[in-house]
């Protein structure tokens, strides 16, 4: 199957990056030196963190890093439970998402990285790097335990192993880990940048996209370049004429949340609440992150709200979002928010009725 | 009261010189015909009676056991295969037998082994520690030594080589240090002794042996077969009580024949505990106890035969009621209130309820969460309850400290009970908590994309082979 545009036109080295060119130059200088610290890249999703990391790796080790293979590694926990984790690795680096294994992430962080770090890298001919790179994604989902374990690993094995961490939000990362890394912010591209990239990409595909449509797509994606490219490709699959009047497709889960918000404002009852719960379960089982569900739901609800109750609703949303980030049973908090909203809304409606 | 007498009472059997010696040796190979029903409190006058009730009623054949016949077959099959296997395959086989107290675990084994001609060696914790002993090895090394000794069969055994080792008393050093137990297991597994049977009682408190010593990993690692007994079925219990009544009738000078109602009463109140049932039967059929029990009980039974009443009737002997999960949920979801003037209070023994489920607070709260909506009649109540549940869940995520978890359980239980002011009382099916597991996609392009972006991927590839949200409602 042909590659997606996202993968096909992903910049391969630091000099061909489309935006943040100044930062790219700095990164190049950093890598050119024989030594470089652990890195922590942070920024919203779809901003190009992963692209930059791959560019850095290519800069370090040459095109060999692009020969990737997936592997399943088994790690044994102290209680003799065997857990499996999928890694993507080349000869020079290994990519792990430790949060895949839930509460056992600490074992993965300790054992797996230790194993990699302890084996000395047998130097190949074309480069003199004597370290391997461990790329950890979604570090912000790691438990605190694992992060503390990571801190020790970073110190102990810094001679023959470099860590590159990739996070969307910096706040869940403990300060001890932050201070051991060079922080690199990859901010989201601006709307003109995205629309320019869309146009360039379409040109490479022998298509013409109207600048207005490119901008329209760029506006909807909220700085997520990956999504912009996916939307653009989805439009192309539907019809090759990328004219201004084309509709930008909206994902079904977004519509689903919107409908759910309508349902909440339409009727406030316990039966309705049970339907909402089913919907929330459906969203969660399909992997939509709870934070995004709450955010979209709030946006949908606020559209229907009177100005008077908006502050109260937002305050409650913030409270439950906070609780959600702390724990792992998200559905309870989501439902608590929905019930709270229903009550506020109902109360407001009845007070309006009294006014008449 | 002489010392000798006390001793003879405690061991159930006639005290002989050999017995006391074997106790001092700590690990004695007992005959299969040992006491099973342990006597608890027997009035002092009974000591003069030459008739040993609890020895008489020990089941002698499989038909007299209170265990379900299918379970019994299962256990018999295991015993047969492992003792035969042992002849050529020198690998230690393990069996873990669990069940509530008085479900007939031990007696089932004793009877089966007797019928299959299998010798039994049982580990008994050393009781009396004298000064010599303090200088000796620790309990654990004695435990291991016991296994080494148990390798050898009795010279008098004609069948030869058929033997099982039973561990019912676990050395208490293991309770403090469960890791040590798995080390010992490791040793035993490789020294190829006779098949080993562990007997554990189910209990809900923190000292749950099965949970402590036999976590799932251990069961898998040493391929331990696990069998669990249920509480005695009322029919079997009744049958067994009737059998014992027959024995009692042979001694008309000591016992009077218990009425049918009384047996029903005992069956109801003993909560499926055969030992408890036997004790009750024994006490209530003693001639001297008539005025205390039979009259009172027979009066009550004729009018109502509910469990609550029966427990009043023979209050002094009944077992504590054990709450099942669903029973507990029902109590929380259908709170009963007692009005007291302007105020009210909940008609429920909260302390006991929470205590019962304090082993797995998160399980109980997730059950509560899954089901509470259907029992509420007012949205405002739901608001308060969901707020409290959300708070409790927040506390539950802090799983390092068990006390916090119990606290969270208290909050959830009380919250749901107190806020439910407009109760909907109708029958609802209890649903189990939903597990949210992200569907593991194969390592293709779709799974590399974020879940929120997958929709576009499916648009591009024009595939319909994925979950679609139905937006038409």
Structure description:
- Chain A is of the alpha/beta class and 356 residues long.
- Chain A has 3 domains: 5-185, 3-Layer(aba) Sandwich (Rossmann fold); 191-238; 253-355, Zinc Finger, Delta Prime, domain 3.
- In chain A, 53% of the residues lie in helices and 12% in strands.
- Chain A has helices spanning 5-8, 21-32, 49-61, 105-118, 144-156, 175-179, 191-204, 211-220, 225-238, 252-266, 270-285, 290-304, 310-326, 330-355; strands spanning 38-42, 69-76, 82-89, 93-96, 132-137, 161-167, 181-185.
- A 7-stranded mixed beta sheet of chain A has the order 2-3-4-5-6-1-7, with helices on both faces.
- Chain B is α/β, with parallel strands linked by helices and 473 residues long.
- The radius of gyration of chain B is 28 Å and the shape is globular.
- Chain B has a 5-stranded parallel beta sheet, sandwiched between helices.
- The model of chain B is unreliable at 1-48 and 289-319 (pLDDT under 50).
- Chain B contains 23 helices and 7 strands.
- Chain B starts with a helix and ends in a 12-residue tail after the last helix.
- The interface between A and B is large, with 58 and 49 residues.
- Chain A: Belongs to the activator 1 small subunits family.
- Chain A: Residues 35-192 form the AAA+ ATPase domain.
- Chain A: It comes from Hypothenemus hampei (Coffee berry borer).
- Chain A: One of its GO terms (cellular component) is nucleus.
């Amino acid at each position: 199957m042909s590659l997606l545009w996202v993968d096909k036109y992903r910049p391969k080295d630091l000099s061909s990056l489309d935006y943040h060119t100044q930062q790219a130059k700095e990164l190049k200088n950093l890598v050119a030196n024989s030594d470089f610290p652990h890195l922590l890249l942070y920024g919203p999703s779809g901003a190009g963190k992963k692209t930059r990391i791959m560019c850095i790796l290519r800069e370090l080790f040459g095109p060999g890093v692009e020969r990737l293979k997936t592997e399943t590694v088994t790690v044994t926990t102290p209680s003799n439970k065997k857990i499996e984790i999928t890694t993507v690795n080349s000869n020079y680096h290994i990519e792990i998402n430790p949060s895949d294994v839930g509460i056992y992430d600490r074992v993965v962080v300790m054992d797996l990285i230790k194993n990699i770090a302890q084996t000395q890298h047998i130097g190949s001919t074309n480069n003199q790097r004597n370290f391997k790179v461990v790329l950890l994604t979604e570090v912000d989902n790691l438990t605190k335990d694992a992060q503390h374990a990571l801190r020790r690993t970073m110190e102990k094995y810094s001679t023959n192993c470099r860590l590159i961490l990739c996070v969307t939000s910096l706040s869940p990362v403990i300060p001890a880990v932050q201070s051991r890394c060079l922080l690199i912010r990859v901010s989201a591209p601006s709307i003109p940048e995205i629309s320019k990239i869309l146009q360039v990409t379409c040109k490479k595909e022998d298509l013409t996209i109207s600048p207005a449509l490119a901008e329209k797509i760029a506006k909807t994606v909220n700085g997520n370049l990956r999504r912009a490219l996916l939307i653009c490709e989805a439009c192309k699959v539907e019809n090759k004429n990328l004219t201004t009047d084309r509709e930008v497709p909206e994902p079904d889960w977004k519509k689903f949340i919107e409908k759910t918000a309508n349902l909440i404002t339409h009727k406030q009852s316990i039966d309705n609440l049970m339907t909402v719960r089913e919907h929330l379960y459906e969203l969660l089982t399909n992997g939509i992150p709870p934070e995004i569900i709450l955010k979209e739901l709030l946006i949908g609800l606020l559209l229907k709200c009177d100005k008077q109750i908006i502050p109260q609703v937002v305050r409650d949303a913030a409270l439950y979002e906070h609780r959600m980030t702390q724990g792992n049973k998200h559905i309870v908090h989501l439902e608590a928010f929905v019930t709270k909203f229903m009550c506020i809304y109902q109360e407001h409606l009845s007070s309006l009725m009294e006014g008449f | 009261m002489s010392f000798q007498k006390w001793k003879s009472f405690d061991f159930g059997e006639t005290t002989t010189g050999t017995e006391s010696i074997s106790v001092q040796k700590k690990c004695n190979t007992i005959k299969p015909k040992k006491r099973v029903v342990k006597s608890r409190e027997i009035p002092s006058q009974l000591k003069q009676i030459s008739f040993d009730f609890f020895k008489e009623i020990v089941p002698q054949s499989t038909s007299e056991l209170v265990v379900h016949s299918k379970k019994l077959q299962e256990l018999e099959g295991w015993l047969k295969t492992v003792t035969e296997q042992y002849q050529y395959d020198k690998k230690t086989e393990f069996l873990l037998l669990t069940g509530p107290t008085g479900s007939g675990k031990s007696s089932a084994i004793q009877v089966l082994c007797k019928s299959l001609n299998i010798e039994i060696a049982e580990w008994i914790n050393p009781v009396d520690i004298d000064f010599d002993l303090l200088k000796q090895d620790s309990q654990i090394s004695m435990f291991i030594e016991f296994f080494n000794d148990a390798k050898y069969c009795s010279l008098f055994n004609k069948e030869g080589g058929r033997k099982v080792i039973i561990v019912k008393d676990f050395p208490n050093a293991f309770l403090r240090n469960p890791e040590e137990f798995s080390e010992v297991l490791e040793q035993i597994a490789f020294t190829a002794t006779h098949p080993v049977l562990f007997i554990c009682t189910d209990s809900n408190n923190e000292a749950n042996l099965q949970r402590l010593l036999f976590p799932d990993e251990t069961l898998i690692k040493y391929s331990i077969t696990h069998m669990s007994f249920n509480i005695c079925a009322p029919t079997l219990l009744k049958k067994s009580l009737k059998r014992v009544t027959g024995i009692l009738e042979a001694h008309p000078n000591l016992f009077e024949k218990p009425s049918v109602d009384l047996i029903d009463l005992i069956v109801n109140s003993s909560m499926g505990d055969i030992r408890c049932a036997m004790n009750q039967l024994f006490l209530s059929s003693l001639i001297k106890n008539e005025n205390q029990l039979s009259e009172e009980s027979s009066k009550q039974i004729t009018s109502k035969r509910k469990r609550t009443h029966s427990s009043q009737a023979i209050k002094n002997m009944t077992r504590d009621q054990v709450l099942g999960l669903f029973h507990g949920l029902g109590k929380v979801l259908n709170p009963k209130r007692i009005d007291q003037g302007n105020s009210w209070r909940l008609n429920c023994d909260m302390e006991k309820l929470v205590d019962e489920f304090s082993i797995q607070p998160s399980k109980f709260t997730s059950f509560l969460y899954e089901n509470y909506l259907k029992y509420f009649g007012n949205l405002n109540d739901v608001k308060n309850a969901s707020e409290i549940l959300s708070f409790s869940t927040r506390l539950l995520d802090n799983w390092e400290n068990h006390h916090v978890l119990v606290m969270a359980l208290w909050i959830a239980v009380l919250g749901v009970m107190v806020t439910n002011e407009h109760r909907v009382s109708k029958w609802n099916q209890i649903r189990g908590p939903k597990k949210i597991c992200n569907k593991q996609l194969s390592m293709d392009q779709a799974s590399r994309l974020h879940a929120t972006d997958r929709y576009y991927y499916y648009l591009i590839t024009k595939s319909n082979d994925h979950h679609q949200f139905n937006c038409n409602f």
